Amino acid sequence: MATVKHLLVLGAGADQVYMIQTAQSMGIKTVAVDLNPQAPGLFLADYSKAIDFSDVKSVIDYCESLIEQGVNLAGVATMGSDIPHLIAQIASHFNWRGPSQETARWATHKYQMKRRLVTMGIPVPSFALVQTESDVMRNWQDWRCEKVIIKPTDRAGSRGVRIIADQTDIQDALTHAKSFSLNNEILLEEYIPGRQISTESIIVEQRSCTPGFADRVYEGMECFWPNIMENGGWLPSSLTSTEKHDICLLVEKTARALGVNCGVAKGDVVICPSRGPMIIEMAARLSGGDFAASLVPLATGINYVKSVINLALGKDVNLKALTAEDKCAVANRYFFLPPGKLEAIEGIDWLGQQEFCCKVEFYPSIGEQLHHIQSHGDRAGVFVLKADNRSILAEYIELVYSTLKFKIDGHWYSGRPTSLLE
């Protein structure tokens, strides 16, 4: 038993299931912990226990008990959860590979992150901490930009984030951001109009590569105003090879600036028309959702989650094997539904039977009361499609939104963002 390495996975929800299964496909055994005793990963892992992974002491005690039994625990990782500080504490205790506490702090505190990046010469939008309406107005006037973004410094998944385009919107946006904040620190940022890109980079000391690269989609954003909502992405990117090269250099430099010297970094990039690529945010973790688990593997044939697992276990990785080659066009999109009682669904089974559909998930149940969408966590479901090229893929996306129907309070909706305005 002791010769087989075991990976501790923090969390056992939908995001972490892919990591657990990937590790097991590599001949690596897994240990999973999650507060929810019904989390699916707990039933898949070789060892598991219903523990709140934020209770680091309890997690460490559980791991030490397994080690005493002969379980060869050799590393810790997660996927989708923004918890590098927990990874850092556990890795440090067992002398496993993991992020430093400093990296964890920079990666989870948006203001500290921006300060660090400016110090290291990384281009970012103008930013400042704010608490009052006058704070917002003063910075907005200094930056001379059309719009600003407000957000908590310590939340993810678009929670508490709003765009401000008029002075009359400021107080409501401040109140909204503070209602989501855990530390009562609010960040104001210059709004940069331009194309946005999602990236995922693997860093190994002086070597690096960015196998994850997608165009982000914000069509229909007016439906959620003043909230900001993403509706999936496209692979491969439509950017030129030069633009992609420049962005890859930027995100890899950013990862090192945040102290990610041996691990993964998830980047959000905006291409400013006048200043070029700029970093919005970067996380020291694998993405959740479908990016690393579905989109990149389908589009390129690369599963770089394996590389992240190997790094966590103290192994080296062959970055040359992570050079992406476009195999097909892939996209994910979401179902957005208005508040009300979900009475009926049509088309989900049909979609699951289509050859071009790689995944479809719908979360609410018939009879469930849906709530107003305020963050990414409020989306009703997701689908992932593939095609030979983006033109055909766009037709498939349109077909899905035109075919599927969701009945809410007596009215039918397509799940398309713009259907919320109908």
Strand-pairing-aware structural class: alpha+beta
Average pLDDT for all residues: 94
Largest sheet: 8 strands, antiparallel
Count the helices. How many? 13
Rough outline: globular
**Radius of gyration, CA atoms, in whole angstroms:** 22 Å
DSSP, total strands = 20
**Low-confidence segments:** none
What is the helix fraction of residues, given as a range? 25-40%
Strand order of the largest sheet: 13-12-9-10-11-14-18-16
Span of the ends, CA to CA: 60 Å
Strand content: 25-35%
Characterization of this structure:
The protein has 422 residues and is of the alpha+beta class. Helices cover 32% and strands 27% of the residues. The strands form four sheets. Strands 13-12-9-10-11-14-18-16 form an eight-stranded antiparallel β-sheet, with helices on both faces. A four-stranded parallel β-sheet has the order 3-2-1-4, with helices on both faces. Helix 2 links the parallel strand 2 and strand 3. 45% of the residues are buried. The mean pLDDT is 94.
